[in-house]
Amino acid sequence: MTSGRIQMEFPSGVAVDFGGTKLSAARVTAGKIGPVMKVQTDGGGDAAHQMEAICDMLDQLELRPEERVGVALTGRVSNDGVWHAVNTDTLSGVHSVPVRALLSARLDRDVKVDNDATAAAVGEYIAGAGRGVVSFGFITVSTGVGGGIILDGKPLLSVNGLAGHVGFSTSRIATELCGSGRQSTIESIAGGRSIAALAAKAGYSGYDAKAVFSAHLDGQEWATKLITQSAQAIAELCANLTTILELERIAIAGSIGLASGYLELVQRALADEPELYRPEVVSAQLGQNSAFVGILAQTN
Ligand code: ADP
Ligand code: BMX
What we know:
The chain has ten helices and 13 strands. The protein is α/β, with parallel strands linked by helices and 300 residues long.
């Protein structure tokens, strides 16, 4: 299911991006991002805790009357605005949270809610790497591996909010059970939580993905193996998406996706695929801000 065509205008309002590692918020004025507030996500918190964390951020931004508010969330967001974790290792206390209704009542306005990667795909389509194409893919390599798809200028949505969850498709090189419940997913080998878990399994406990990436950049072979296989799985995902949707361009984002040399590792792995299955793969241009723009955008 796709919604209406994305309005190609730079939106304004207050946006929240709730990711598996960090919760951030900013005021957006005609597409220009103001100072970004960030706090660490508490993935073990229950629904009330997560709602309070979101509202604390919004309170600090001192909302103006009538100001648009958008909240992008890691997890599945159904078309009636109910929030569910799919990977319950990332968010263990979020099950069927009526987040749109709760926030709309609390803020006395219709708050827009959506999946974080879908929102980021819209933001990149309006103001970033998606400009100039009408079929566009967005992959965030972050705590997990998220995705957003734009087809003929419209975001791919679904009744239960699962569409676009490309990280839960499977990889030929993955071996682990994913927190989504599926075996050998892209996320289970490429996402940040998984890189840390695989490092621990290899005897390097206490390393988060950021530390693994630093060890990779320092030339430690064990770390390079983990980062390289993450990139290989993302390349496989790009080829799979091309086979299914033949996207004109795919943008890679997320702290891992945008880390030094990661895109080149993806492109190198993609070079092993026949040309027919090799899309244009680029870095997201809005950095960590894509979802801020996308969650405030409107469709006609
Ligand atoms: P979120 O998933 O909350 O959107 P990020 O996009 O920052 O947040 O992704 C978080 C993941 O990225 C974590 O696994 C973290 O260890 C890792 N990470 C954070 N900064 C870096 C970095 N500079 N290089 C590589 N990995 C990073
Ligand atoms: C997971 C899934 C997606 C999300 C993606 C990236 C959960 C909690 N999240 O695949 O909904 O878009 O991670 O999210 O099931 P992030 O936390 O890495 O930003």
